[in-house]
Amino acid sequence: DVKVTQSSRYLVKRTGEKVFLECVQDMDHENMFWYRQDPGLGLRLIYFSYDVKMKEKGDIPEGYSVSREKKERFSLILESASTNQTSMYLCASSPQTLGSPLHFGNGTRLTVT
Amino acid sequence: AQKVTQAQTEISVVEKEDVTLDCVYETRDTTYYLFWYKQPPSGELVFLIRRNSFDEQNEISGRYSWNFQKSTSSFNFTITASQVVDSAVYFCALNRGDTGRRALTFGSGTRLQVQP
Q1: Per-chain mean pLDDT for chain B
Q2: What confidence score (pLDDT) does residue A2 get?
Q3: Which one, out of A33, A99, A113, B71, has a CA that is 20 to 30 A from the CA of B31?
């Protein structure tokens, strides 16, 4: 089974802090994704990466950056956390085969106070 | 641009009732893929099914069935004889079929509550 592991289940940070969310997958998938989930809005794509050091902006990249230095690890960075970034963050991975489903981690619930 | 609409925000049924979750999509692509995911209270999204745009056959898996109709751009999901364990948020999603370097576009989800 594919395992996507997010480093924290719950995080509480203060406004203005730099926040790192880490994600690791163990199936050698080329693609990795960060989504944000908010009630009534579903899942919205923040960034994705299709290869090491490659990244593409999703629908809501403002206020976020990402890093992919190794194939198995994809980090989401909040440069200066704000209260409107309080949300559930979901990491996913997939192979680059057409039509492949995404495999998700358990999510990180981030609260910014 | 692609779009997925799940107009039903929340549905509540009593156990053993049948329930249909609606999904309507928009895309200009001729090749695309549609997905359903389940998110139980534990939070992890679980993949349920994938269909490609060239395969309009309906699919049944136990109590679950899916009806794909290109003419109405819909990919509806029916649970027969619902059970309390079916309580979850269900997401419909769409992916382009031109390359494997694509992210899924998700709908806003439908929360299903099955009462005992």
Answers
A1: 94
A2: 66
A3: A33
